[in-house]
Write a structure and sequence with these properties.
With 383 residues, the protein is of the alpha/beta class. It contains 14 helices and 12 strands. Helix 12 (307-316) packs across helix 13. It binds 4'-deoxy-4'-aminopyridoxal-5'-phosphate (PMP).
Length: 383
């Protein structure tokens, strides 16, 4: 139950374990082309340009930054935790002049504040983290996308902890880049960096004055490859992660078979049930209810519970969870991922394990209250 790598579907793993096809074979070209196409459906960006790269989510962040930023470009970075701060560091390597709007832990940054900055007219680009995995805070992308259109500022959404779990409508919301990695709600083992770029983002890339400062990430190298696969022609720049792409193809099919609306709703229901269980056990949470994510939760330990002991007892009860990540709160909270193929049973089992761990460690609470609250919240929804 960590927020990635998640537990993967056996059919996806079987696909990945098949003999590696040649990257220029007809069989693989179809797998790659169909995956590029399915990404646009999952991202809800029919006119976008998809990219599939061997690498992690940080590479997807790097690729978006390297291709859209030039020296001295002004960038507004909305930081709701660890990964927002990482984006500012990354962009500064390419010479960006970053202004960071940082929220207090557990809070988001107000749209008014963002608009006030954009009104100054000095920014080329804005980045934000849809769900910051360090805080479980979700930012509402729609108003940010619209502001980006209104003020002619390119917008990059870090969706590593959101794509295929949280609601995203890239094209309707006018967001220029939505990027992610394979190992979270996309449901494929780590190793793929994925992004969809809007037409406006690709035009901004074409209008660059200087070459991209990162050879591997440069769209000048990769765009012809993606185009070739789309047209079902062989092409080569760097060897694709063929087994992972085969797994991606399978997982994207499963995601679209479930249907995006149903999938968003399943994530919302399970997250709500888990948060009501946490509340019923008397634990506080890092994000406030209004900004709490559907893909992971971040509860605080109750008074007197020691982080390492709790994580160990959860392990003993059969559930692997993640510790805190935000430096200032690291030992005060833990993180539970609930994304991808997560079921009602998985979340109930996790709540029961929490109750067992808390009881062993001497925390006094109304035994069964967490599981009852989760069951109640789930009982009105059939999936
Ligand atoms: N952004 C967010 C929101 C993340 O959660 C992560 C990884 N947990 C990253 C970026 C970086 O991804 P990766 O670890 O795959 O490089």
């Amino acid at each position: 139950m960590i927020p990635g790598p998640i537990e993967f579907d056996s059919e996806v793993l079987t696909e990945m374990g098949k003999p590696s096809p040649s990257h220029v074979s007809k069989e693989f070209i179809d797998i790659f082309a169909d995956s590029l196409d399915m990404m646009k459906k999952v991202w809800k960006c029919p006119d976008g340009q998809s990219f599939i790269m061997a690498g992690t989510g940080t590479l997807a962040m790097d690729m978006a930054g390297a291709n859209l930023v030039e020296k001295d470009d002004r960038v507004l970075v909305i930081s709701t935790g660890y990964f927002g701060d990482r984006y500012a560091q990354l962009l500064e390597r390419y010479g960006a002049d970053c202004h960071v709007l940082r929220s207090a832990p557990g809070e988001s940054v107000s749209t008014d504040l963002i608009e006030k900055e954009l009104k100054t007219g000095k920014y080329k680009l804005l980045t934000f983290t849809h769900v910051d995995t360090s805080t479980a805070v979700k930012v509402d992308p729609e108003p940010i996308g619209l502001l980006g259109q209104q003020y002619n500022v390119l917008t990059i959404l870090d969706g590593v902890c959101s794509v295929a779990g949280e609601e995203i409508r890239q094209q309707d919301w006018g967001i220029d880049i939505v990027l992610t990695a394979s190992q979270k709600a996309i449901g494929v083992p780590p190793g793929l960096a994925l992004l969809v770029a809007s037409e406006r983002a690709m035009e901004a890339f074409e209008l660059r004055k200087n070459p991209v400062l990162n050879y591997y990430s440069d769209w000048a190298n990769w765009l012809p490859i993606m185009k070739a696969y789309e047209e079902r022609r062989p092409a080569y720049f760097g060897t694709p992660a063929v087994n992972l792409v085969a797994a991606l193809n399978k997982s994207l099919k499963q995601i679209l078979e479930e249907g995006m609306e149903k999938r968003f709703e399943r994530h919302r229901i399970i997250a709500r049930a888990f948060r009501s269980a946490i509340k019923a056990l008397g634990l506080k949470q890092v994000p406030s209810e209004e900004v709490a994510a559907s893909t992971l939760s971040a509860p605080y330990y109750p008074q007197g519970i020691i982080a390492s002991e709790f994580v160990q007892e959860m392990n003993n009860a059969g559930v692997v969870i993640a510790g805190g990540l935000l430096p200032e709160l690291k030992t005060k909270y833990f993180r539970v991922g609930h994304m991808g193929k997560i079921s009602y049973e998985d979340i109930l089992f996790t709540v029961q394990a929490m109750e067992t761990a808390l009881e062993i460690l001497g925390y006094r609470f109304d035994k069964g209250a967490g599981a009852d609250a989760a069951r109640d919240a789930l009982s009105s929804h059939q999936i």
